[in-house]
């Protein structure tokens, strides 16, 4: 079971969300072959989206679209306050050239963040440049530029022989009313807190990841009411709806050629087949 832990300082000027997301990342690649580089960036992006979604309200959704010119290409992840998350990577088998850095996987480009609210006709969109290709730094830059929220974002995904060995992270945000003293204390802590990769590799829990902050500031835990889980929206019904858009003539040609409509979901890797019998039923429904 995966659940985000949240904390709010007693003076209400700092909020933190932390999560150990190993199970989520492993679920995301269950039906897919993914390189270590793509897995690392997908896991970090998805973890970041989960943490951002946990600070939203019921029925709200956040989507992060990293569009880079590196070997991974683009990564899109969407997370809901209620816990559902999914992720897509343009090139799941991307590799770095020798001596390349993880951040080179995305390269240069943009991060588009889409926030959807219930009863809102159009979602809110914000776009910033990728400042480094490091997922955590790019999310922090977005929060500062688009929402004027200073933050500390730490994300980690460690690949293993059988997929994701460990993953997790946290987002600390400064809220209105924070003081310069708070900033200085946080900066001092940053100099002594172990790197997030080191904490995750040692099996740190959600509270372990942010223990240095919890000890040095007065925090109260907040209850997040939802577990987080990986779930794709794909289904045979959606696939058949896609087939319907081809029109009767093209579907009839597929039947005459005894072709099977093959589709692989970009988010979860699940394969679907629509056979000639199903295609004929779709034609009948379209003519009705």
Automatic annotation (TrEMBL):
InterPro entries: Heat_shock_Hsp33, Heat_shock_Hsp33_C, Heat_shock_Hsp33_N. It holds the Pfam family HSP33. GO terms for cellular component: cytoplasm. One of its GO terms (biological process) is protein refolding. Keywords: Chaperone, Cytoplasm, Disulfide bond, Redox-active center, Zinc. One of its GO terms (molecular function) is protein folding chaperone. The keyword Protease does not apply. The keyword Chaperone applies. Gene3D superfamilies: Hsp33 domain, HSP33 redox switch-like. This is Molecular chaperone Hsp33. It comes from Pseudobacteriovorax antillogorgiicola. The lineage of its organism: Bacteria, Pseudomonadati, Bdellovibrionota, Oligoflexia, Oligoflexales.
């Amino acid at each position: 079971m995966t659940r985000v832990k949240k904390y709010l300082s007693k003076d209400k000027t700092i909020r933190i969300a932390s999560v150990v997301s190993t199970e989520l990342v492993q679920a995301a690649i269950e039906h897919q072959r993914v390189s270590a580089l793509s897995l690392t960036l997908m896991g970090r992006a998805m973890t970041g989206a989960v943490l951002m979604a946990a600070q939203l309200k019921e029925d709200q959704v956040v989507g992060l679209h990293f569009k880079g010119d590196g070997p991974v290409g683009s990564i899109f992840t969407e997370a809901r306050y209620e816990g559902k998350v999914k992720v897509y990577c343009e090139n799941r088998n991307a590799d770095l050239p020798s001596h390349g850095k993880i951040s080179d996987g995305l390269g240069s480009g943009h991060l588009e963040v889409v926030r959807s609210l219930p009863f809102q006709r159009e979602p809110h969109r914000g776009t910033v440049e990728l400042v480094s290709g490091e997922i955590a730094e790019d999310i922090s830059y977005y929060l500062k530029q688009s929402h004027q929220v200073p933050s500390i974002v730490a994300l980690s995904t460690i690949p293993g022989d059988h997929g994701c060995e460990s993953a997790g992270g946290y987002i600390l945000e400064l809220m209105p009313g924070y003081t310069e003293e708070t900033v200085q204390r946080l900066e001092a802590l940053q100099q002594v807190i172990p790197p997030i990769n080191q904490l995750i590799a040692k099996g740190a829990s959600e509270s372990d990841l942010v223990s240095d902050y919890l000890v040095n500031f007065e925090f109260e835990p907040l209850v997040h009411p939802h577990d987080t889980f990986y779930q794709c929206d794909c289904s045979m019904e959606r696939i058949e709806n896609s087939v319907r858009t081809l029109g009767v003539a093209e579907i009839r040609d597929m039947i005459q050629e005894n072709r099977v409509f093959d589709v692989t979901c970009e988010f979860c890797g699940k394969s679907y087949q629509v056979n000639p019998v199903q295609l004929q039923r779709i034609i009948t429904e379209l003519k009705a």
